[in-house]
Amino acid sequence: MTLVETGTVSGGETVLFWVIAPIMVIASLGLLFARRAVHAALSVVLVMICLAILYVAQDAPFLGVAQVVVYTGAIMMLFLFVLMLVGVDAADSLTETIRGQRWVAYVAGLGLALVLGGVVAASTLPRPAGLTAANIDSNPVGVARLIFSDFVFTMEITGVLLVVAAVGAVTLTHAERLRPKATQRDVLESKMRAYAAGKGGVGQLPAPGVYARSTSATVPALSGTGEPIEASVPRVLRIRGQERTIGDVSPETVAAVARGRAGAGTAGIHGGDATRAVGQSGLPGMRGEAPPTPQLPGSPGAPATLEKASRLALEHTDGAAKEEEL
């Protein structure tokens, strides 16, 4: 299933290519159109695995194993780890900050497509020399000979770029602060200034959920006027689009709010009907049934179960005391 010296492709290799190629194309499109960064990273993992299979099919087992171990197993897992640290709730801004950058990107993409097309044409149009002579020692030896002889300058440039990227990441991470670190007092004063300007509140956000109708974190709370409080739903759920409306979980609450706004005060969520529907405990100063009076064992009217439980407890206590004496 390898490319022979005559330049022909075997039937097995053709079947393998037409099975792997559509999967790679679909995964590449998933990378471009995925709305979540995690899904895009998983699409890249699938592309790399398919590429490793093609490497092995072309008598390059070392490249195939390195593709899986180095790229798929290490670098992509590092990407996913960073995404988990940053958080899936990070929203990307689609606003074009630099004017004209899209046209520059289009031209650069077209140039990259022409370069890749030229590389593919240069590698397929001449008659292939065969892989037997290239891998006469072994595949790793053949790869090393090409890297450190014909492409030594490219390898040096790649090494310099990796070192610069690592040093730059460390420098940006441990850079000096542009402004003093905000203390707890500074945070409090900023919140008070925002509250005075009408841009926020100083207290904690209300808990999500609509009374006893729902305790889900995806449902917003209701204000005193019957308006849903969007800030009561966690920001992560709102960005993911998992927030539900009050009408989804409690249509009767929406109807009660509408009746209250229409002037039917007794039928609203804070009307007389809602007040009368709440049971009262009967405590001093409150209407309702009297609270139950606890009955001690041995008192008149005490249930037989209480008498039995009391007798068993006394027997157990006496038995424990006798064991301690022995």
TrEMBL record:
Swiss-Prot/TrEMBL catalytic activity: a quinone + NADH + 5 H(+)(in) = a quinol + NAD(+) + 4 H(+)(out)
Q: What name does this protein carry?
A: NADH-quinone oxidoreductase subunit J
User: How is this protein situated with respect to the membrane?
Assistant: Multi-pass membrane protein
One matching Pfam family is Oxidored_q3
What's the EC number here? 7.1.1.-
Q: Which UniProt keywords apply?
A: Cell membrane, Membrane, NAD, Oxidoreductase, Quinone, Transmembrane, Transmembrane helix
Record's family? Answer: Belongs to the complex I subunit 6 family.
InterPro entries noted in UniProt: NADH_UbQ/plastoQ_OxRdtase_su6 (IPR001457), Nuo/plastoQ_OxRdtase_6_NuoJ (IPR042106)
Judged by the first EC level, this protein's enzyme class is translocase
- State whether keyword Membrane applies: yes
Q: Which residues form a coiled coil?
A: none
Q: Which residues cross the membrane?
A: 15-33, 40-57, 69-91, 103-126, 146-172
